[in-house]
């Protein structure tokens, strides 16, 4: 699948590219791992009611913990998964996925990325 846009360079954590309307990401921490060339990034992602984050992938794993609301995730090749506060989801490296708030209140997740250092954090798919 062709990549339409590359955003979120790990070299530019503070200068994040614009996000789709209705979603915000607040970076909480970033650390090099003991494995050379790898790092972890932890962020809070908030979704307004009805907001979605389009199909994208990461250069490593994403571990999601839903903090509030009702969020639906679509991972390539799998049926949609609807999660609520306290639910978790593992997204394997480079798997195309999307997320949307299917509830009537704000939805929020704690996203932990274990990714290759120096690669763009997010690649949007066509």
Automatic annotation (TrEMBL):
Cupin type-2 domain mapped to chain residues: 44-106
Designated name of the protein: Cupin domain-containing protein
InterPro entries assigned: Cupin_2, RmlC-like_jellyroll, RmlC_Cupin_sf
Matches recorded under Gene3D superfamilies: Jelly Rolls
Superkingdom of origin organism: Bacteria
Coiled-coil boundaries: none
Pfam families named in the record: Cupin_2 (PF07883)
């Amino acid at each position: 699948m062709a990549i339409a846009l590359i955003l979120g360079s790990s070299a530019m954590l503070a200068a994040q590219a614009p996000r789709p309307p209705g979603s915000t990401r607040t970076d909480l921490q970033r650390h090099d791992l003991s494995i050379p060339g790898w790092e972890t990034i932890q962020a809070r992602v908030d979704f307004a009611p009805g907001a979605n984050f389009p199909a994208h992938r990461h250069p490593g794993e994403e571990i999601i913990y839903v903090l509030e609301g009702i969020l639906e995730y679509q991972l390539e090749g799998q049926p949609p998964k609807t999660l609520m506060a306290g639910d978790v989801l593992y997204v394997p490296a480079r798997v195309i996925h999307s997320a949307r708030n299917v509830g009537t209140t704000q939805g929020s997740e704690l996203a932990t990325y274990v990714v290759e250092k120096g690669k763009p954090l997010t690649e949007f798919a066509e």
